[in-house]
Structure prediction request, 668 residues.
Amino acid sequence: MDNKIKLSHGDGGIHTHQLINDVFYKYYGSPAAMGTPDSFVFNHTDSCKLAYTTDSFVVKPLFFRGGDIGKLAVCGTVNDLAACGAMPLYLSAAFLIEEGFSIEMLCGIAKSMGEVCRHTGTRIVTGDTKVVEKGSLDGIFINTSGIGVVSGFYEPRQVEPGDELIITGGIAEHGTCILIDRYELDIITGLESDCAPMCNLVSGLQEELKYIKLMKDPTRGGIAMVLNEITRGSGIDIELYEECIPVKSEVQAINDMLGIDPMYLACEGRMLIAVQKGYGESILQHIKTLNNCREARIIGKFASGSHGMVYMNTRIGGRRIIPVLEGNILPRIC
Amino acid sequence: MDNKIKLSHGDGGIHTHQLINDVFYKYYGSPAAMGTPDSFVFNHTDSCKLAYTTDSFVVKPLFFRGGDIGKLAVCGTVNDLAACGAMPLYLSAAFLIEEGFSIEMLCGIAKSMGEVCRHTGTRIVTGDTKVVEKGSLDGIFINTSGIGVVSGFYEPRQVEPGDELIITGGIAEHGTCILIDRYELDIITGLESDCAPMCNLVSGLQEELKYIKLMKDPTRGGIAMVLNEITRGSGIDIELYEECIPVKSEVQAINDMLGIDPMYLACEGRMLIAVQKGYGESILQHIKTLNNCREARIIGKFASGSHGMVYMNTRIGGRRIIPVLEGNILPRIC
Prediction:
C-alpha cells in the first residue's frame, strides 16, 4: 500500500476494501467486528433483529436536479437499512459545516431531510453540529447513521446458479445528474436524480422477502461494481442481458458523449435484488406495483462458473466481461 | 439569526442551541424528535432500554499529549452513552479523509480506536470511508455513533435544592493540552489530556445509580457551560465552592498565563454527577475507588433560587456569577 490516501480509497472499490482490511480490520480487531459492508445486523432479543449502519455524504454540488445532500443523506442510510431487509426506526444526523456557510442553504438541506423522514416514518433523534474555520472544509458534509428493525421474513443467504437478478428501475440517473450539474454541461433535459428512499420494498413485499436472497443498493461504482462485489470469490458468475438493463435514452446519450459507461455510475434510489430461482417473474410483478419501481426489470441471472465474473451478453450477440475498475470515475457522487 | 454560519454555531453554547431550534427542530419536525442533547433513549422491549448517540470530531491537532482524534472519537461517544447510564454495545465509525493524508497516521488513529474498544468491551460494527480532493478538508474528520444498553438502575430525574454535585476528576486538562499543542507553547509539563472512557461509572456504581439524578460530560464549553445548561430555565441555582474544584496547579498556571478561565475549557474524561441530597459523600467514596476517578470531589450543590444561575463561592469569601459565554474560547477542541 502506498503511504498516502488516494481518492480511490474512498470510491467503494478495490482500494477502499484494501484500506478496510489493512487498516481498520487490522487495528479495530477481527474482520467479523466490522459486520457486512452496508449494515450490521444483531439479535437484540430473540424476537427482534436490529440493523445498524452509517454513511457520510460529501456530494458536490450540494444541490442537484432531483435532490440535495440532505435528501441523499437520509435516503442513503434508509436504503442501507432496506438492503438488510430493515425498516428505518431512528436516525442520527451530524453536520460538519464551514464557517460562513449560508443558513438559508442549511435550512433547505434540513427541510429535505425532514421530508424524507416523514415520508418513511422515521425520525432523526440525535445529532451533532461542528463548525470549522473557513478553508478547512468544502461547504458542508453530513453523516447519518440509522437503526432499523429487520423484517422477520427476510433471511439473506448464498446465491446459487439459476437465481435471478432484478433492478428496481433505470440505472445511472443519479450519477448522470451529478455530472451535468457539477460540470455545468449545456444539456437540456428533464432528467432527475433517482435519489429516493427504498424501504417500501421491505414493507411492500412482506412474505415475498422469503424468496429474496440478497439486496444491494448500487451507489458508488454503480451496478457494475456492486455485482462484482457479489461474485468476487464466490465461484459463481453473473450473466447480464444488455437489452434488459433499463437505461434511459437521455442517460445513455449523455454518457456516450462523455465516454462513460453507465454501468459504473451511481444510483441512489435503486435496489439490486437476487431472487431464488423460479420466483423472479412473480416477485418482479409485485415489485412493479410499488412506488418508484415501475421500471423494474429482470436483468440477468447467476450461473455456474469458477471465475466469479460478471458477463454482459450484448444486444448484437457478443459477450464481454464487466470488469472491476481501479480508480474513480466520479468522486464525491454521494 | 445572521445569514451565515459562525464558528460559535458549533461550540455547543447559545448559538448552537439557536441553530438546533431555528433550523433542525423546525425542519425535521417536533423538538421532541431530537431527544436529549447527548443521547436518545428508547424502550426497545419492556425489559430493555437502548441509548443512541452521534458525535463528529474535528480536533486540531490530530495528535496531542494524552491522545489523538481516534481515541477522542471512541471516548466521546462512549461517554455520551455513559451520561445516559448506558454501557456501550456497538459503535459506527465514519472517516472523512483528505487526499494525500498519511496512511501511517491513519493506522495510528485506528489503533487508538481499537484500544479503547477493547478496553470498554465495545465493537465498531459498521463504518464508512469517504476521501475528498486535496484542499477540501483539513486532514481527517471522524464521526462515531453508538448504541448502548441503559442500566436498569438509572432513572434520570429533576434536580432539587440540596442535591450535590460531583466531578470525577481534575478539570480543563484536555483543553489545556490542546492549547499547548496547537499553539506549540514552549512549556515543559507532564500534563496529559484527560481523554478516557467513562463507562466504568455505569458498570462500577450499579445500584448506587439510583441516587444519581443526572450525569453530563463537560466537553465543549467546560463545566461552566454544562452547569449553566442544567440550571437554564430550571429556577434552581448552583452554588460552587472554588476550593473544592480540582484544578491541577499546572493547568491553573498555564490558563492564568493565557488569561483563560479553566471553568470554560473542555474535559474529555470527566463526568459531572448530580446526586440526591444526602447521598453525595457515600457516592463520592465509591466513585473514588473507580479507575480514573481518584481525584473525584464534591464541588457544590443545587440551591433554591429563581434565577437559574451558577454561582462560584470564592476562596477569599466572595461570590460571583459563572456566566454563559457567547462565542468560542477554543474551537476544534474535539
Summary: Chain B has two domains: 35-150, 164-321. The longest strand of chain B covers residues 86-98. Chain B has eight helices and 14 strands.
